[in-house]
Write a structure and sequence with these properties.
The chain has one domain: Rossmann fold (3-Layer(aba) Sandwich), CATH 3.40.50.300. It has 6 helices and 7 strands. The protein is of the alpha/beta class. It has a 7-stranded mixed beta sheet with strand order 1-3-4-2-5-6-7, with helices on both faces. Strand 5, helix 4 and strand 6 form a beta-alpha-beta unit. Bound molecules: guanosine-5'-diphosphate and magnesium ion (MG). The site of guanosine-5'-diphosphate has 19 residues, from helix 1.
């Protein structure tokens, strides 16, 4: 898929302020500094559409980007950065949880996980929360340029082992490096398969059924 246009559509502090529900949405979630904004920029082929923050914990709103006038990417506030003020830190931000639980046009959450770190408690808590709330998700291991192949496999296996404690299904897994422009086509391929159901899958959300959280 080409991403011929990518337009910043708005910033929402909470679910009520989100844009209309007319377009399928794909959200990027993960710890602050995991590489959400960088990966979003890689997907749309722009260097600076989403701000790559030098200050972790910076993005506190849901940021919406309309792609090809047809679907949206959503850059979500990161969780778990210790220097964010305590009352803003929470477990995960309320706006994120409300959005994930109640947004009808949300197709899939890409959960970004830093492959250069051992599994982090807040990543695991977030994954368990998604499983519990039957939110469709895929795993995206970021910054793979920083790790060896065996180390990457170790991190992936560790996360999969924890997920297996909560669900029988297994999510799609992507490995990405924004620094080396790796993973773009695979991610766009998943998005395409949801948007173009006649190619492979049944319509829309049925491609990633909410009642089967992997
Ligand atoms: N080595 C490497 N660094 C990355 C990669 N992606 C992001 N970064 C760096 O990680 C930091 C946080 O990235 P950012 O996209 O702002 O993360 P966000 O807080 O999740 O949006 C920045 O300094 C990026 O340059 C990657 O694929 N490889
Ligand atoms: Mg960011």
């Amino acid at each position: 898929m080409n991403t011929s246009t990518a337009i910043f559509t708005g910033s929402a502090p909470d679910l009520d302020s989100c844009p209309d529900e007319s377009m399928p949405e794909f959200a990027f979630a993960g710890r602050s500094n995991v590489g959400k904004s960088s990966l979003l920029n890689l997907l749309v082929g722009k260097r600076d559409l989403a701000r790559v923050s030098p200050t972790p914990g910076h993005t506190k709103h849901l940021n919406f980007f309309t792609i090809n006038g047809r679907w949206r990417l959503v850059d979500m506030p990161g969780y778990g950065y210790a220097r964010v003020k305590r009352q803003e830190r929470g477990r995960f931000s309320k706006s994120v949880m409300d959005y994930l639980e109640h947004r009808p046009n949300l197709q899939c959450v890409f959960v970004l996980i830093d492959s250069s770190l051992p599994p982090q408690d807040n990543d695991l808590e977030f994954l368990e929360w998604l499983v519990d709330h039957e939110v469709p998700f895929a795993l995206v291991f970021t910054k793979v340029d920083k790790v060896s192949q065996p180390a990457l496999q170790g991190v992936i296996d560790a996360i999969k082992a924890r997920l297996a404690e909560w669900t029988e299904g297994s999510p799609e897994i992507f490995v990405c490096s924004s620094a080396e422009r790796q993973g773009r086509n695979a991610l766009l391929g998943l998005i395409d398969s949801v948007l173009e159901p006649e190619q492979k899958q049944p319509m829309g959300k049925q491609a990633i059924p909410r009642d089967t959280p992997w």
